[in-house]
Amino acid sequence: MTAFVLPVPPTPSVAVSGSAERFAVRRIFCVGRNYAAHAREFGNDERDPPFFFTKPADAVVDSGVTIPYPPLTANLHHEIELVAAIGRPGFRIPRERALDHVWGYGVGVDLTRRDLQDEAKKAARPWDWSKAFDRSAPCGPLVPAQKGGHPRKGRIWLAVDGKVRQDADLAELIWPIADVVSICSEAMELEAGDLIFTGTPAGVGVVKPGETMTGGVDGIGTIEVTIGQPK
Known about the structure:
The chain is an alpha+beta fold.
């Protein structure tokens, strides 16, 4: 039995819809600019190939929580996303077999310290401090693909205090789920427990302390997260 000098940290996990079991999270990959309108709202070309950034596994938190407003920012943004949960390992996965590796789907929010991201872009530095901070990856319960199938269309939306900000359809994804999984596996050997946040539609915006985000994806579920006061 392996001995550790410090207590082993708890395993990050996501709830599973209709079950007391949870999905252990290994890594979190996120796709940038995967809806044409969102790419255009930031002045980018929607024809560019997808690119990825990461968040630590322990950035994930459940729906229904209150998250302290994060430090080092005055411009926290919401980004609603469909999340694909990987259930089978694979490397250089062909597109036509990619969905076989997806265990299920959930609704996530990629929280972003936009001011830090803008500074990083100007300085040609990594985005880590703007994306990979504590509690920056809220995720609702996962729906197994065996139960809900593999979504190709359906409404994806987010509201802040009841006012809809983001409202699109999964059919508008530039790179559908199978492409995203296949392309990601070209660079990284995907493993069971990996989550892929598949990109956000247009309408991202500021969320402030005291405000509540609600969102959802048709056929998958919903998410609710409140932003609390700074620590």
